[in-house]
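In response to the reviewer comment on reproducibility (Comment 2.3), we provide here a single inverse folding case reported in full, input and output, so that an independent group could reproduce the run without further information from us. The structure tokens appear first.
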């Protein structure tokens, strides 16, 4: 005779609601019960094998007279990098051979026999005495005011307000924005917008309109945009002191024995600086040569 009890329960495997006829019912269907049983058996087997593997590994290391740094790290429960740091500071004695390092197992036991615990003194923070103003940061690193405050909030840059001016820790700002300075190569062969404005007495709006109309080659380094110095000088009718350093598409195809599509793919994928003169493309010679340079180790 079937039960007339109806209990709303949650399946322990799939988590769905179902009507149970018995208080001991745990699953909504036979399929969930079978899957739960298999999962429990699998987890128990994996745990058992892991315990066996750990015990075998520990027993094997304890039986060896000399062990490797990796085995020593497993034995004392630290990472390999930490263990090598101990070896470098001579906290753990070792012997270096050609291509391998060995540690005597008994030396590890002796370390814990005469170990004296030394309480580490709390480091006292040094006061910050060197600062940037907000305008100095914006000029030096070429970032926007909103981006500065957003970055400072994310990285918790120390700041203070003195007589209405926000002062930022110079050390923390230099570390946070170390990668925002343009490289020497960019500074030598490319103009920044400020340099163009100063040299040719143009406003920023005029510079942007000019490079767009003349299709002056440009590139972005770190967080600043630079324009080809040679092309800008040529467009302004000024003789440039830089040698032409570009490939035409046929020259690049002949130089590297590639099709036009292959060259275009590498130029787009690796962001090779390029410019257009009419319908002809000019590809930066140094950047393309560096991309296809033979690999080198050391």
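Designed residues, in position order:
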């Amino acid at each position: 005779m079937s039960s007339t009890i109806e209990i709303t329960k949650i399946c322990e495997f799939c988590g769905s609601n179902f009507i149970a006829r018995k208080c001991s019912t745990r699953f909504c269907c036979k399929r969930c019960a079978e899957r739960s049983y298999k999962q429990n058996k699998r987890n128990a087997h994996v745990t058992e094998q892991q315990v066996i593997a750990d015990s075998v590994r520990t027993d094997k290391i304890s039986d060896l007279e000399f062990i490797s740094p990796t085995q020593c790290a497993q034995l004392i429960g630290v990472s390999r990098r930490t263990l090598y740091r101990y070896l470098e500071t001579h906290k753990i004695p070792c012997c270096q051979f050609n291509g391998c390092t060995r540690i005597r197992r008994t030396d590890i036991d002796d370390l814990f026999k005469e170990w004296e615990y030394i309480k580490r003194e709390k480091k006292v923070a040094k006061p910050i005495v060197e600062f940037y103003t907000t305008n100095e940061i914006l000029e030096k690193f070429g970032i926007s005011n909103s981006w500065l405050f957003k970055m400072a909030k994310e990285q918790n840059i120390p700041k203070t307000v003195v007589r209405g001016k926000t002062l930022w820790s110079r050390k923390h700002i230099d570390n946070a924005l170390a990668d925002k300075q343009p490289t020497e190569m960019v500074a030598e062969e490319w103009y920044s917008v400020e340099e163009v404005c100063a040299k040719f007495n143009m406003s920023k709006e005029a510079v942007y309109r000019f490079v767009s109309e003349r299709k002056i080659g440009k590139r972005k380094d770190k967080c600043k945009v630079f324009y080809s110095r040679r092309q800008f000088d040529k467009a302004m009718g000024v003789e440039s002191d830089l040698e032409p350093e570009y490939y035409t598409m046929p020259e690049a195809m002949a130089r590297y024995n590639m099709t036009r599509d292959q060259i275009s793919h590498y130029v787009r994928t690796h962001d090779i600086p390029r410019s257009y003169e009419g319908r002809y493309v000019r590809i930066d010679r140094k950047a393309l040569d560096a991309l296809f340079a033979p690999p080198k180790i050391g």
